[in-house]
Amino acid sequence: MAWDPSTYMQFGAERTRPAADLLARIPNDKPRRIVDLGCGPGNATELLAACWPDAEILAVDSSVEMIERAGASKINAQFVVGDFESWEPATPPDIIYANAAFQWSPDPVGLVRRLFAHLSPGGVLAFQVPQNFDQPSHVVMREVASNGPWAERLADARWYDPGAFARSIDYARALSRGRRDIWTTEYLHVLRGPDPVFRWMSGTGLRPFLERLEGAEREAFEDEIMTRFAAAYPLEADGSTLFPFRRLFVVAARN
Q1: Which residues of 143-163 are buried (b: 16+ CB within 10 A; e: fewer)?
Q2: Percent of the chain beyond pLDDT 70?
Q3: Domains of the chain and CATH, by start
Q4: How many whole angstroms separate alpha carbon 169 and alpha carbon 211?
Q5: Are 166 and 108 in contact (CB under 8 A)?
Q6: pLDDT (tens digit, 9 = 90+) per residue, 63-99?
Q7: How many Cα atoms within 13 Å fall on the side-chain side of residue 51?
Q8: Rounded distance, CA 42 to CA 70, Å?
Q9: Which of 35, 53, 75, 221 is buried most, with the most CB atoms less than 10 Å from its CB?
Q10: Is the pLDDT of residue 1 over 60?
């Protein structure tokens, strides 16, 4: 799947805040080796490098575009193209970190169980994933994708089933051999500008759908999504749009 770093970072401050909140709860004072899985354009990697400037940091993402953007920065890290589904460390890391990445896995619970086993003794697995899949932003995507003339082309695109998606208790059970800190936060983003929820989702959840459409068909799909988003997230009196976004955080340390 193609990614556009510029589109993703239109809301860079809002996307980076959960990364900082996750980082603040990691109980490891002096890690030597850190891995940032699904690093995107490097916004979270930059936080890791600032927090632990002496650590060796490996940042991995499957998107060539994201790695090129991150690699052009002056962040003290090694950026490589790779898939976190198959990634394995050459040496056990002290921290495996992932900001808004594991929701793309077809088996996120199995993934975190496998990654946890690769940690060094006392190592920490820390990740956060969206839990917004039952909200209008995602309900609208599914309904529009499955009910228009494009339905056949989008049938096998990445779906988010709110009834089947991994929950906090699933991760807690998968990481039961570690010391677990698990919580949920709902951020209320105050967005501005035209069609802000569409622009937000264009950088993430809408990508699997948009890349399969082109020309007039894509325009029609986008128009329908924007119309539905505008109804679900109306403008406030001050011209802003309020966009609640719930995220699940997990920090697990090996005994």
Answers
A1: ebbeebebeeebeebebbeee
A2: 95
A3: 1-131+167-192+244-255 (3.40.50.150), 132-159+193-239 (1.10.150.290)
A4: 34
A5: yes
A6: 999 999 999 988 999 999 999 999 999 999 999 999 9
A7: 23
A8: 5
A9: 35
A10: no
